[in-house]
Amino acid sequence: MPAETAKGRLVSPRFLKFLLAGGVAAGVNFGSRIIFNNWMPFTAAIVLAYIAGMITAFILTKLFVFTESVHSTSRSAMFFTLVNLVAVLQTWVVSVVLAFHLLPWLGIVWHKKEIAHLVGVIVPVFTSYIGHKKLSFRSH
Questions:
Q1: 8 in a domain, yes or no?
Q2: Which of 17, 29, 59, 126 is deepest in the core (most CB within 10 A)?
Q3: In the predicted structure, residue 10 carries a pLDDT above the cut 50
Q4: Closest to 102 measured CA to CA, from 88, 91, 113
Q5: Using an 8 Å Cβ cutoff, are 95 and 116 in contact?
Q6: Nearest to 65 by CA among 122, 12, 121
Q7: Total structural domains in the chain?
Q8: Would residue 77 count as lying in a domain?
Q9: What are the tens digits of pLDDT across the range 30-74?
Q10: Residue of 124, 132, 5 lying closest to 60 (CA atoms)
Q11: 8 by DSSP, 3-state: which?
């Protein structure tokens, strides 16, 4: 039987909202990487796309997920950026290792950059949620 939260729910409503906001931001991240890749190398496009997604995530998360933060918007933005610096490093490492090493080694070449980047974007979901809950948008 799956583990349940203290209130008897498998997943909290706040985490579901976080996933939804993050999903929209991930879409911005993923889509903009494809566009940016037309003008710059894959590795640089990953970072720029992550910034576009991060701005989207901050706005959506502040407005709809962690609405009772004790921090000012600027302080939340500072912590949000710090948490996302860790996450962008995770995204970059996973994307590059998959695209240029693991997927080719496995014989996967069809859309290898897209597959690698998608996995790279998914990896930091849980660490980011904890970081934003405990730091970026800490409540009383």
A1: no
A2: 29
A3: yes
A4: 113
A5: yes
A6: 12
A7: 1
A8: yes
A9: 899 999 999 999 889 988 998 999 899 999 999 999 988 888 899
A10: 132
A11: coil
Q: Which residue has the tokens 């729910």?
A: 9
Q: State the residue range of the domain holding 59.
A: 13-136
How far apart are the C-alpha atoms of 80 and 57, rounded to whole Å? 9
Tell me: the pLDDT tens digits for 80-115? 999 989 988 998 999 999 999 999 999 999 999 999
Within-domain flag for 6: no
CA angle 30, 37, 84 (to 5 degrees): 45
* Residue 98 amino acid letter: L
Please choose, from the candidates 80, 71, 76, 68, the residue with its C-alpha nearest in 3D space to the C-alpha of residue 25.
80
CA dihedral over 59, 83, 27, 16, signed as positive or negative: negative
- Local structure of residue 10 (DSSP, 8 states): S
The secondary structure of 50-92 as a DSSP string is: HHHHHHHHHHHHHHHT-TT-SS-HHHHHHHHHHHHHHHHHHHH
- pTM score, whole prediction: 0.71
Burial class (CB in 10 A: 0-12, 13-18, 19+), 72: exposed
In a domain, 48, yes or no: yes
